[in-house]
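Page header: ASSEMBLY MODEL / four components / 1562 residues total.
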Amino acid sequence: MDFTYDEEQLALRDAARSLLTKSYSDFENRRKAVGTGHDGDGPGYDPAVWGQMAEMGLLALPFSEEDGGVGAGPVEVGIVAEEVGRVIAPEPFLTTVVLAGGLVAAVGTDEQRGEIVGGLAAGELVPALAHAEPGSRWQPSARTVSATQDGDTWTLEGVKEPVPYGATADLLVVSAALPDGGTGLFTVDPSVDGVERTGYRTPDGGRAARVRLSGVTATPLGEAGADATEAIAASYDATRVAAAQEAVGAMQVALDTTSDYLKSRKQFGVPLKTFQALTFRAADMYVSLELARSLAQWATMVLASPSTDAAERRTAATRAWAQVSRAARHIGQEAIQLHGGIGVTAEYSVGSYTAHLTTLDHLLGDSRHHLGALARGVADYDVVDPIG
Amino acid sequence: MDFTYDEEQLALRDAARSLLTKSYSDFENRRKAVGTGHDGDGPGYDPAVWGQMAEMGLLALPFSEEDGGVGAGPVEVGIVAEEVGRVIAPEPFLTTVVLAGGLVAAVGTDEQRGEIVGGLAAGELVPALAHAEPGSRWQPSARTVSATQDGDTWTLEGVKEPVPYGATADLLVVSAALPDGGTGLFTVDPSVDGVERTGYRTPDGGRAARVRLSGVTATPLGEAGADATEAIAASYDATRVAAAQEAVGAMQVALDTTSDYLKSRKQFGVPLKTFQALTFRAADMYVSLELARSLAQWATMVLASPSTDAAERRTAATRAWAQVSRAARHIGQEAIQLHGGIGVTAEYSVGSYTAHLTTLDHLLGDSRHHLGALARGVADYDVVDPIG
Amino acid sequence: MQLELSDDDATFRDELREFFTTKVDEDIRTVVRERGELTKDQIVRGHRTLNEAGLAVPHWPVEWGGRDWTPLQRHIWHEEMQRAAVLPPLAFNTSMIGPVIAQFGTQEQKERFLPKTANLDIWWSQGFSEPDAGSDLASLRTSAVRDGDDWIVNGQKTWTTLGQYGDWIFTLVRTDPDVKKQAGISMLLIDMTSPGVEVRPIELIDGGHEVNEVWFSDVRVPAENLVGEVNSGWTQAKFLLGNERVGVAPVGSVKRVLAQTKEWAAATTTDADGTTLLDDPLVASRIAELENELLALELTALRVVANSADGKPHPASSVLKLKGSELQQAVSELVVDVAGPAGLGSGGTSETSDLEQWQRRATPAYLNLRKASIYGGSNEVQRQIIAGTILGL
Amino acid sequence: MQLELSDDDATFRDELREFFTTKVDEDIRTVVRERGELTKDQIVRGHRTLNEAGLAVPHWPVEWGGRDWTPLQRHIWHEEMQRAAVLPPLAFNTSMIGPVIAQFGTQEQKERFLPKTANLDIWWSQGFSEPDAGSDLASLRTSAVRDGDDWIVNGQKTWTTLGQYGDWIFTLVRTDPDVKKQAGISMLLIDMTSPGVEVRPIELIDGGHEVNEVWFSDVRVPAENLVGEVNSGWTQAKFLLGNERVGVAPVGSVKRVLAQTKEWAAATTTDADGTTLLDDPLVASRIAELENELLALELTALRVVANSADGKPHPASSVLKLKGSELQQAVSELVVDVAGPAGLGSGGTSETSDLEQWQRRATPAYLNLRKASIYGGSNEVQRQIIAGTILGL
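Prediction written out in full:
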């Protein structure tokens, strides 16, 4: 068991940090990239930064070389995710590379993988996964969007919402209930007839969309008519683990920012750090952070291990996100509270960190949801042994 | 709606406080009364104090005048319970007067009430309720102790445990599964053949016992063969509310003791109250206490109100104890922690307050247990309206 | 001790309930219920409906519109209002500056301001906090220097809630820089249309525009707009911050949101068999827990109002503010979880999104309510008060 | 990064697991499992079983019995021991004074004490805390005054755990009252059979006798029993308190108790239909929550041991102590709730009670474990360390 990064991984971290820090260490740059107010004009991120991430190979990390990737794995994805989290970069690394890209890589045909994953890795094509439906709650199956088959032609009908970065995506990967049961995956060109997309801002300044599909012709992703439920679940698991690493990066910076504020801000003639009630709360934030970091890194190793099975990966993702999500609430709330009024303003960074950490729960499930899943299994084993 | 005590009630409070303070303001007196070590020698309280409580009429409060009581109600019982709690007097006011006595008063025949309740009120007879069985969890029904009928003769068989103050009680009130279903109540003279009692200390220095009943002849309490399940539940509800008041008294003193310690104890050359992280935690203890006090007083008023029904009383008792039990954990744990090492010693009072507050949960159910009951009902109403 | 309301109070409650649920414009109550943003017009309209019925300033002196209610009646009034999703009257007017003018103002000031304040003909803003004077309010630096019959005001106020609608602003200004900081402060009423007053919006993390910075550059204020004596402003400030304990904890509105949360959870299916989120024991127990805490808070509020009849706030008032904000935040957090994936839709509208309005509002409301434990005396200040004045620490 | 143990470490673990589950006397493991009280004989016997197998002092220098294991191996050793309900070797000997003598002692002291210390032929007690020197250890007042070849010791130590069994006690004493408080302290080893040493029991709230006061009245201690230089005791104390990070969080034993809690909950029916407490979603979710927190703690411990190979403790060590004690206490509290009404039976025995031993032990164990967040550097001290040394506050 080894928690350390090798030299290549450390170099990747440094490179990613350098790029993202240059882009977003000035918090105003992030505000410009996401735009202000409620509307969802623009893509919600900086295409130039996205292009630089592609150039650096960050978008190619999890994909095989034959698909146009670089054949790295969950550890490398986690490293980049943590750096994305440190500056809460608005680029859709998580939803596009890990979630949508991971799913295409898992079930797509050779040709589809080459085109979609290759295009994504090169920064030339941004796919989005349209899976959630109004009323669904993180189930890996589709219910209200249905697919019908007529010969080789598949047609989709229904509403997908919220679709992360769905309004500007170049390609939609859509899940749909299959005629004979199960959930299939399809690719949809968003410019074809019957696709109506309306985008808006998410609470953290990101983007999501409603995608109405009215008799849209779609191409099966991978084998036509195959049930992709497990693949969808696995891709969400991988996203939870990467998101856990991303959140760790964000929580670290939220804590650092708070510590700095306690050192510099004066009230009643003395620095805030003079008040032990505040510094002890910062210490508790550190405890939450370190415990969350441990589970995030462990889940990453479980995903990266050749000896774990799908059920173990599912459990590890659930455990990691349950812990990280709770830590994120704790740290996000306290970071604002210890700042006072400035913490809830959009100009100052720390509130946006809290907003982003909260928003991840909408994508991946809150800790109570995952705790419930864990609770249903506690009778099945004696102790939790972390060492594989 | 009125939270204030009238003059007579204030006089009762002062008299009870005067008696109990005189008896137990020196904490060594309580240690002597309960004894030390694990064993259960002695009754676990001071019979002289019990006698003084009887003289003052405190044991007669909830009972009607015709039964030998003074015809007061839950408000007066709560006042005395709070005073008992302030000094954690070891006398079995709660289990004997409220729990056992209340049940006899509710279901006993005129004659039984006169004898048992009258004797209790006079300090001449100490009954105990033998209801819990190994394996039971606060259900109002009996399962493993059964009653069989042969003509007018009733015979009990089985084990009751833990029976609060059961080893030294003058009379046992025993619940038993009836031949035709339901739970009946019986009185048992503990000196008769077939009754075997072994007593021991409870975690707070009180007493409980195992009572083995082997073919013991018993007298039906009230109507023979009648189901007393509801009466048992109601008596436990009344006990929960009185215990809530008792716990409020204990929590108040635990907090006061802690505040005094923070003022007087020096570390690093300054009083502990210099450390804001400690004083803020004392403030949070106060918040818990005041919220608990509100629910305890409210539940007392619900019990005292002529316009509430059994279901409302049940809910009020559940709500009060759920809140008080949680506050008791919070305040009990923090009172020790803020004291440091001395807090866990038997010589110093505060640890015994924590022990007593914990022990009440064993008698009445922990907050998670009661929260579960409340959770099963949340769909049945819109809002909780406290005003009758 | 008695559980029941007296007959008079029960009648009082029934009449108010009737009024609030039938006489306040439904469009306003709908927005409140859906946690949306009210327009200025709606706020003013709602306020005037209350004032016309004598329900805007019941706690003021009778000659200025007060009703001489008991503390319990004022509590009932406040609870019924929130329960009916009626927006309470504008606090800056009715709870803050109105009582100050009534207590400390000259007869001229009373006549000039109180009726218009009660009817929201003047919209008051609050000018207390400054960038470097948050919890440590007395360290404020905005200065007022006497010049003939006027004061010349310079400085910056911040966190001015709804300042964009303000007609007048009541401010604390430093009129003597050479004495102990509390001793050199005065209270000035400033017409916000005066030259040199500038209001700049502060965007909050929920994307909304609710608070502002207010800048004063050589603003000329007639001396007659001073409230009380020169350098006595700290007295007025303490009176303002401490005099109103009814409604310090938003029990009624949080109860309403929690009741709505149950409806929302019951309308959210989690499984194909129709199981709802309200059937989830962890969600149900969290609701039960919050309901019980809210009940305890409401009862504590009732105890506090009953014991503050002599005008002095009950020492437990800080408990109401502290626990009230915690529960308000906790309920808003639960709504975030009940909204689930639909919480991503915060920027959507009924045109662009099929998600429910309450789902879309969940996270902005949660984020916005982080302020509840910061503004108006942070929870740290409340703990300090409890530790200091109640526990003697 | 790698999840799996290396082949060597996996073999290492399997061998230890085999040893602990088969070679340690079953009576000892049973008492540990049932949370009972071990006799002195059992503690000594268990310790010597480990020492004979070279498993009592693996972290000592090799010449005194150490094994030169990696930090990970030491972690595995400690976890497997607790998992098997094997009592770890006596910490006063192996974790506290042994390493100090090995580091600071003279060759004579090493030869005289280390073998007997490793084998528990000497039972060491700790004499650091005093009634007025708790978290502020350096303010201790027990004095040692030089008299010829001896030191004369006077004063009082407290919280001396298992001092009733002690043969020797390692103490911090003030040897120079005129300098900065940390600078005037020395470490003395004192034979507890010396005239003038008196051990008085302190009863704890669980009714047990676990800690003591130790009084010194003109106790004569040979100068050769001083460890290190005169007035260098604070150095030895810091070394002692800081050098051992393996096992600072009792992960293994808490995991075991939590696993037992599941068995106990599954054996507790709540309804006539056989539903058990483990089927209660609130209980199950609390268990799941604690399991996840414990997993996070264990992983953090693994990260910390991996990063303290250079001898300096990882700054996150305080997290282990803080969270470790919190979780130990939380699990013990859950056991209280699972025991339910049977928790009243704490004073019962198998003769006097039909209740289960674990039920009877539940509340005494919970009350006793309140000490976990107080002794050995309170959680407040840990927060201070985290805030100060890690966050720079």
